[in-house]
Write a structure and sequence with these properties.
The chain is of the alpha+beta class. The protein folds into two domains: 225 residues, no CATH class; 73 residues, no CATH class. 65% of the residues lie in helices and 15% in strands. A five-stranded antiparallel beta sheet has the order 1-2-3-4-5, with no helix packed on it. The chain is elongated and about 80 Å long.
Length: 334
């Protein structure tokens, strides 16, 4: 690496992490303001607020805002370099535009790996603690769960649960039926079922028989390994409606990859002097960022409703914006 590479890389990562730190600080302030009444009303301990909630709140929102602030960081410091004629000096010295992109893509790779590890292995267990805290002390929304669950867990053995609440691990009206060909030979019924995370087993209340092992988790609280295992297990059981889990799986790869695409667009846009100054570059950058987020939201909605393949829905925004990035790169000053 040359001094130029280190110079650009420091500007890239420094601007990105400063922007993330700034937006997270603002988010924490607004979140405290919004929830402080709930904390006092439900008697939330100070150490739980700090270590159970906000310590896990920060990585979640940092990763959520990463694609947007990669773009804004690139636009901001590259525009500043362009208006200080640093880009002209770099290209005039014999460095090609393609070569100048190297430290940008290196920075995007660092941020992409950072985002992948956060989203796949750090944030899911953190979400378990954060969501549990919200359910206990905030109560600002009803607990989401799965309803009318019916699946085959092995040949001839079927289970049914009227409703399962993933955050608390509680389920209502559980039953398990065993068939010999078409004849019902055994049935277990229970009014309540609860998954015990300490023992890894289910506890049944008001039961007739007791024999069941299994696990249904909320995808935000699964690591990559757990998510892949869960999807494979449900497919083996013949369970449908896995679109949300598949979208989460593919998104954890597609989102870090977007750092490269948005970096390419940002450099290609901001490296040229235009009338309107840095403000125009930032305005166009923010518009494209929100366009990317809107595109992702719409395509994943179609996938959840079963109208689009999940992997296509997640990667389509990257494909379209990669084409935009290549077009802008071809028009960038050389």
């Amino acid at each position: 690496m040359k001094k130029l590479d280190l110079y650009i890389l420091r500007k890239f990562l420094g601007t990105f992490f400063f922007a993330i730190l700034l937006i997270i600080s603002i988010s924490v302030v607004f979140d405290v303001t919004e929830k402080i009444d709930n904390f006092f009303e439900h008697g939330a301990p100070l150490d739980a607020i700090v270590f159970d909630y906000y310590k896990n709140f920060i990585p979640y929102f940092a990763n959520l805002f990463t694609p947007l602030f990669v773009f804004i960081a690139v636009i901001f410091f590259t525009s500043k370099m362009a208006y200080q004629t640093e880009i002209i000096a770099i290209l005039s010295s014999g460095v090609s535009f393609r070569r100048m992109m190297f430290p940008y893509f290196l920075g995007a790779a660092i941020i992409g790996v950072f985002s992948f590890l956060l989203g796949g292995y750090v944030i899911p267990p953190a979400n378990q603690t954060r969501i549990k805290f919200e359910n206990e002390y905030v109560k600002n929304r009803k607990e989401k769960g799965l309803e009318k669950i019916h699946m085959q867990i092995e040949p001839g053995v079927f289970v049914y649960m009227d409703k399962y609440r993933a955050y608390s691990g509680n389920g209502d009206y559980f039953s398990m039926e065993k068939y010999n060909e078409k004849e019902l030979v055994a049935k277990l019924s229970a009014r309540y079922a609860k998954y015990d995370t300490a023992t890894g087993k289910w506890q049944l209340k008001n039961y007739v028989l007791r024999e069941f092992e299994g696990e249904i988790e909320y995808f935000e609280m699964m690591t990559n390994t757990e998510l892949n295992d869960y999807i494979d297990e449900q497919k083996a059981r013949g369970v449908g409606n896995l679109e949300e889990f598949l979208i989460e799986k593919y998104k954890r790869v597609a989102s870090p990859f977007s750092a490269f695409i948005l970096t390419l667009i940002g450099v290609s846009l901001a490296s040229r002097k235009v009338r309107g100054g840095m403000g125009l570059h930032i305005g166009v950058g923010i518009a494209l960022s929100f366009g990317y987020i809107l595109f992702m939201t719409i395509s994943t909605t179609f996938a959840v409703n079963g109208n689009m393949n999940p992997i296509l829905a997640v990667w389509l925004p990257n494909i379209v914006f990669a084409a935009v990035g290549i077009f802008l790169y071809m028009r960038a000053p050389k």
